[in-house]
């Protein structure tokens, strides 16, 4: 990354692994459980959050010196909500089928605690460029986990990836199903997302012992 | 934070300013995009109706509408008549497809409800398409059902507002929608029975078209029950029309 200084680059790379918002800070768990039954939904949610985080962090950072501290949480919430509504309306007007695909996820972005968390912890104390990088970095860190969880839940739960039947047809008994393999319906239920996230946390901490808290 | 931004007056003024700016921004966005959004919704209704009567761009496994560019033209070509049925009276109405089923349902009383019905002609076959609406697990579900004159389903398009992805949301997948094709809404005596979404019909590939049942989606019990209730409740209102038709 020749464009970025070492410090700036860390803002993007840190949240991808050693300071991941989901596995280390345990933020944004709610949406990670709710919408990861399919890979496509995970990807779409990740992109939406990427946009809102990037823009929102910059906006908050730009007005950080004039926000009254007493109502800063309300101001942050208003910024997120306004951005989300604008995104929703623009999609409805110019990408109608995509907006139907996203349906509830757009609204759910407002409740994503990573966004409020980064506004509060980073954008309020840093300049716009740094805040932008931090927003993008954290959104990508969120996306990585969402995509991994979505991948395993769709593959093991439905036997498909992005809707393609990669393991064969469960009704016609072709592919893997011909030798007695069955989809695990449990994987489609939210608790299994928690277990997959748990396994990711386990793998991550056993590879990097510094992350283990006493 | 400086002292200035901590004062109550500043806080209140900031809050008021913020509300005005954000409010104006959102109002401007909503107002300027509204015509485009309304147009999209209208086109979608036409696409849905055409989809149900088999005018679509389906490939092997996914459901695809005709494109929005050609939807109005195809709609005029295939849909020969649009009717509104009000308490048994059938009148022709070229804007029947714009009727909001949600509002009609909210009237409660079935005799006050305007029921849209679209008659389509394709390859010498006549289709009767009815829009219906009901409740799933989280929010509304709705459908366009194309039937022949004996109330045998010829095509179906299901949609939903907020069912669970991977579970209830799968009602708009081909494997679920296509299961309805050929299903009889009437039983062998000619009484209206609907089509139940069943978990125990022992007919997963849906060979039996006269059992008034299709196979349910695992993990989507309430959505499936909602679909069955919607078919039973709303399509039964059209029975008198079909009885008249066959006299």
TrEMBL record, chain A:
Its main location: membrane. The keyword Cell inner membrane applies. It is an enzyme of class 7 (translocase). It is a multi-pass membrane protein. The chain crosses the membrane at residues 43-63, 75-96, 102-119, 131-152, 185-203. It is found in: Cell membrane; Endomembrane system. It comes from the Bacteria. Coiled coil: none annotated. Keywords: Cell inner membrane, Cell membrane, Ion transport, Membrane, NAD, Sodium, Sodium transport, Translocase, Transmembrane, Transmembrane helix, Transport, Ubiquinone. Its EC number is 7.2.1.1. Pfam families: Rnf-Nqr (PF02508). The keyword Metal-binding does not apply. Composed of six subunits; NqrA, NqrB, NqrC, NqrD, NqrE and NqrF. NQR complex catalyzes the reduction of ubiquinone-1 to ubiquinol by two successive reactions, coupled with the transport of Na(+) ions from the cytoplasm to the periplasm. NqrA to NqrE are probably involved in the second step, the conversion of ubisemiquinone to ubiquinol. Belongs to the NqrDE/RnfAE family. This is Na(+)-translocating NADH-quinone reductase subunit D.
From TrEMBL, chain B:
It catalyses: a ubiquinone + n Na(+)(in) + NADH + H(+) = a ubiquinol + n Na(+)(out) + NAD(+). Its EC number is 7.2.1.1. It comes from the Bacteria. The modification FMN phosphoryl threonine is found at residue 221. The chain crosses the membrane at residues 12-33. Pfam families: FMN_bind. Its main location: membrane. The keyword DNA-binding does not apply. It is an enzyme of class 7 (translocase). Its cofactor is FMN. Keywords: Cell inner membrane, Cell membrane, Flavoprotein, FMN, Ion transport, Membrane, NAD, Phosphoprotein, Sodium, Sodium transport, Translocase, Transmembrane, Transmembrane helix, Transport, Ubiquinone. Residues 136-238 form the FMN-binding domain. Belongs to the NqrC family. Composed of six subunits; NqrA, NqrB, NqrC, NqrD, NqrE and NqrF. NCBIfam families: nqrC, PRK05346.2-4. This is Na(+)-translocating NADH-quinone reductase subunit C. It comes from Gaetbulibacter jejuensis. The gene is nqrC.
